[in-house]
């Protein structure tokens, strides 16, 4: 799950870690002996799951090896400040959200987004099928469960859709769907690929999801982020280019065969996580909606468009994050890979 609930953890300490980057070993991306494949470290944004299955396939299928890379895939989690890990030079590339990058940069980092795994913001309002919330105005007069870290996101969503905050009752909740199942709330701020599947597992019914990105609150998610100095170094830039080429192949395989992505995740890369294959299949299937878009149909996975950059900057500014501009994005590597699958 790459959501705002993790943002404070990720951004915390960015300034200190970014300053420490100058003291970090700059050889973390190269083979110590100067022989063999180039080493590269990917910091993911959460615990192992199908959310990162494209990387698992790239590793298992030999796509990294084909690009002369030895990639270490680091798990994230509640105690991992993944933006700060990249900013400090302790990972070559990381996964996060565009708004988290803006927050980190506002705190002193200098991170650049080079690819967008999820074309849409994966936050949604989840509701029960017998009392659906299909459009923003449906929230008026309703009780909406909101994790504390997502309060600002809901406030901005309401503002963008001309809804007074006083017309919605905010109920503090965690990440469990129990408040919706029990009727304590009428809707939940949810992560599109996770809580909806948990709701179905708990009730046997398919909940109703309204993506906030469809109603003005739109930022790229699961973006690939690097330090600006990485792009300025020809050798480091070349490693990132080869890495993204392999990643595109891995995620292309996910789009083509979701079941294989689930099997590889549950049986190998997250085998100690106690994951349900059924739940992971449901999550992976929903994830396809986030991976693909008209832009990716035309240009390939991970694409970042000029219009997308403008939308992201507008949304990030609406969230109250200062300093967001086009320099947060660099599409040159994607453009060089546009003809690759």
From TrEMBL:
Domain SsuA/THI5-like per the UniProt entry, residue ranges: 51-257
GO biological process: thiamine biosynthetic process
Subunit structure: Homodimer.
Ranges in a coiled coil: none
Alphabetically ordered keywords of this record: Iron, Metal-binding, Pyridoxal phosphate, Signal, Thiamine biosynthesis, Transferase
Lineage of origin: Bacteria, Bacillati, Actinomycetota, Actinomycetes, Micrococcales
SUPFAM superfamilies: Periplasmic binding protein-like II
Protein purpose: Responsible for the formation of the pyrimidine heterocycle in the thiamine biosynthesis pathway. Catalyzes the formation of hydroxymethylpyrimidine phosphate (HMP-P) from histidine and pyridoxal phosphate (PLP). The protein uses PLP and the active site histidine to form HMP-P, generating an inactive enzyme. The enzyme can only undergo a single turnover, which suggests it is a suicide enzyme.
PANTHER family: 4-AMINO-5-HYDROXYMETHYL-2-METHYLPYRIMIDINE PHOSPHATE SYNTHASE THI11-RELATED (PTHR31528)
Pfam families named among the record's database cross-references: NMT1
Protein name as it appears in the record: Thiamine pyrimidine synthase
């Amino acid at each position: 799950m790459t959501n705002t609930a993790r943002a404070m953890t990720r951004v915390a300490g960015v300034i200190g870690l970014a300053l420490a980057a100058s003291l970090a070993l700059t050889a973390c991306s190269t083979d110590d002996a100067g022989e063999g494949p180039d080493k590269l470290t990917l910091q993911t944004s959460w615990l192992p799951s199908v959310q990162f299955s494209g990387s698992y396939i790239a590793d298992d299928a030999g796509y990294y090896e084909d690009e002369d890379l030895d990639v270490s895939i680091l798990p994230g989690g509640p105690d991992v400040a993944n933006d700060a890990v990249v900013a400090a030079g302790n990972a070559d590339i990381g996964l996060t959200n565009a708004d988290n990058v803006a927050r980190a940069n506002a705190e002193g980092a200098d991170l650049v987004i080079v690819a967008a795994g999820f074309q849409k913001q994966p936050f949604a309002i989840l509701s029960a099928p017998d009392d659906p919330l299909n459009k923003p105005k449906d929230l008026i007069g309703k009780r909406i469960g909101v994790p504390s870290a997502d309060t600002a996101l809901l406030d901005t969503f309401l503002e963008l859709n001309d809804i007074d905050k006083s017309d919605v009752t905010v109920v503090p909740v965690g990440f469990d769907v129990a408040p919706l199942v029990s009727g304590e709330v009428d809707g939940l701020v949810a992560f599109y690929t996770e809580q909806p599947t948990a709701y179905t597992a708990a009730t046997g019914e398919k909940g109703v999801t309204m993506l906030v990105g469809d109603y003005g609150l739109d930022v790229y998610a699961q973006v690939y982020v690097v330090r600006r100095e990485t792009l300025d170094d020809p050798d480091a830039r070349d490693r990132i280019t080869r890495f993204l080429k392999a990643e595109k192949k891995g995620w292309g395989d996910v789009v083509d065969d979701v079941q294989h992505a689930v099997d590889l995740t549950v049986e190998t890369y997250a085998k100690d996580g106690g994951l349900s294959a059924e739940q992971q299949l449901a999550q992976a299937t929903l994830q396809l909606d986030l991976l693909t878009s008209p832009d990716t149909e035309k240009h390939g996975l991970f694409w970042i468009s000029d219009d997308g950059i403008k939308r992201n900057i507008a949304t990030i500014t609406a969230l109250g994050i200062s300093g967001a501009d086009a320099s947060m994005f660099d599409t040159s590597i994607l453009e060089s890979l546009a003809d690759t699958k």
